[in-house]
Amino acid sequence: MPAVGTPPARPALRPPALAFRRTLAGILAGALTAVLLVLLPSTQASAAPVLLSQGKPVTASSQESGGTPATAAVDGDTGTRWSSAFADPQWIRVDLGAPTAVSQVVLRWEAAHAKSYRIELSDNGTDWTSAHATANSPGGTETLNVTGTARYVRMLGLTRATGYGYSLWEFQVYGGTDGGPTLPGGGDLGPNVHVFDPATPGIQAKVDQIFKEQESAQFGTGRHALLFKPGTYSNLNAQIGFYTQIAGLGLRPGDTTFHGDVTVDAGWFNGNATQNFWRSAENLTLNPVSGTNRWAVSQAASFRRMHVKGGLNLAPDGYGWASGGYIADSKIDGQIGNYSQQQWYTRDSAIGGWSNSVWNQVFSGTQGAPATGFPEPRYTTLDTTPVSREKPFLYLDGNEYKVFAPAKRTNARGTTWASGTPAGESIPLSRFYVVKPGATAATLNRAVAQGLHLLFTPGVYHVDRPIEINRANTVVLGLGLATIIPDNGVTAMKVADVDGVRLAGFLIDAGPVNSPTLLEVGPQNASADHAANPTTVQDVYLRIGGAGPGKATTGMVVNSDDTVVDHTWIWRADHGEGVGWETNRADYGLRVNGDDVLATGLFVEHFNKYDVEWYGERGRTIFFQNEKAYDAPNQAAIQNGATKGYAAYRVDDSVDVHEGWGMGSYCYYNVDPTIRQDHGFKVPVKPGVKFHSLLTVSLGGNGQFEHVVNDTGAPTSGTSTVPSTVTSFP
């Protein structure tokens, strides 16, 4: 509503709320506000009634200033507030996401309160019914018992009690989640989580049995987590196959020690490690039997929070091909033998040395890393990582399971645990809904609405609607490469434009009906500032085809500002079942619309058009690995107007600031080796757009690149698989 007259400036009665958003900080009073939440930790889900409104999408008729947005009334912070323009009437409305049984509304007024108002309910946001009305409100804190079912709840202020606007510290709506029963938190971890302690009999035999099942089960349905309680384990060689996670259950890697190895080799594929995908090792200390542990992996195989008291060999026995890889928050006392690894990214770690480069070896925040030498040796090294927040992990506090959520770091270098207990938050398992096969998306959404986090146990899950993560600071953690398959062309998961969501440790596998997207981080036109508490996407993998027919127009869309994508593999399958140029059609891998998004360890491959498109400002990528789609039938199939082929990584012409380090694109057009690709990278030529250590490679002469970036860089040629490089651009 427009303000009446020009009232005097109002003195602040409490400290002002946080700034609304960088680009909206000067919004005028009376403007319509429509943003999504800023929020604090969830309430205990077992309590009744449940707080439904905290962190939910909220809109208002107006706001007094940039420091008093509507989101401040649902953020759980009694030191921040929403305040309206100085006029009648005004309203604030919260969207609960789905029709929900409402039993109570709590209004925590600032001194500028309503004299008369109504609490109204609606299923559609247009047609309203009154649940409570008063003509003489006392202000302060009002607890109102109401009855009804609604998706939208609003306070409609009719008459102000002061000359100022309407001002609420908190607007809290309580009730059930959908009229169904309250879901329990915690519980057992299901049959595919195998927990060991040093006294467990037959550990080696059990680990060997699981490896035998999973060694070559590249597209199988088995999923396993091998979890080791704190203690010392001797004479153990844990070989890790597909969809297998091995992890210690201590708070620090040194709490769980192996006198033995955690091994990945490639005997199942005749010494070729380029298909050793989808597995992980975390939170262990290793004393390798030979002095060197072998971890010969390719994409989607993370090595996190590990301490190797010796060396680490990244190549398979016989030094066959390998196409990894990723290390983070780890300490390797000895040398890391890169050997045949085509590319590798190491972040926020400490290493005793590095043996050699092949095409693209990248380091950020890594003590002991070799200096930048690109183009020869092909090392790209950043002293620190601009923003990082380690992946959440399950651990035991005595006999109680908890999830540790590490704190955000800026300009990070070295591990989080070198000085002892890392900084962060411990969340009891009782605050998680433990997801087991057979759970529905409706149940998961109800759990989130209750205030629960989600812990997916190892398994394969079908969803008939999006999993909606619309509460700030929600943790969604998968064990054993838990896999989500969207049915009937839905998006598997959507995250609201809220603070601090953590997605980690799961695979989304496209279904046979085309999905517009598989994962959306923030809605279209998301605008909230999350710099202080970003959403992180870690060890989250997307797959289209391979396990069967799958289709998706775009793999992942990032709309929320400040998101950190830390190690993802977004893959349109080039082998397996359901594979063909149109059979597993997927035009785009990753699209970034948000500002200030950081990608660390970005692997995106084989999409029909652009693998990565970037529209947001101030984006940064540290390490990028790409192959163009193998199966293009001919030049016409990839022709992009007058341009030969779609770039692997395109920054939109509208972008003014963008930077990338250590980025490579390869082509292997094995259906039509005569295909020519104009470039691997297409970016605007502006002072703020900078790239370092770029390369393109033709694998065995199956197709060729004309340039590396735009019209810069020598063409690839011949069959010798020698990269064409550009050290810096422009």
Q: What does this protein look like?
A:
The protein has 730 residues and is mainly beta. The protein contains three helices and 55 strands. The strands form nine sheets. Strands 32, 33, 34, 36, 38, 40, 42, 44, 46, 50, 53 and 55 form a twelve-stranded mixed beta sheet that branches. Strands 1, 2, 3, 4, 5, 6, 7, 8 and 9 form a nine-stranded antiparallel beta sheet that branches. Strands 10-11-13-15-18-21-23-25-26 form a nine-stranded parallel beta sheet, covered by helices on one side. Helix 1 (203-214) links the parallel strand 10 (193-196) and strand 11 (224-228). The longest helix is centred in the first third of the chain and has 12 residues, at 203-214. The two termini are 50 Å apart. The relative contact order is 0.08. Residues 58-79, 711-730 are annotated as: Disordered. Residues 38-176 form the F5/8 type C domain. This is Discoidin domain-containing protein. It comes from Streptomyces cremeus. Residues 712-730 have a biased composition (Low complexity).
Briefly say what this structure is.
By secondary structure, the protein is mainly beta. Helices cover 4% and strands 43% of the residues.
Envelope shape: globular
The number of E-state strands comes to 55
Strand content: 35-45%
Largest sheet: 12 strands, mixed
Oligomeric state = single chain
Structural class: mainly beta
Rg over CA atoms, rounded to whole Å, is 27 Å
Distance between the termini: 50 Å
Task: Round the mean pLDDT to the nearest integer and report it.
Answer: 92
Question: Count of helical segments?
Answer: 3
Stretches where pLDDT is under 50 for at least 5 consecutive residues are 1-48
Helix content: under 10%
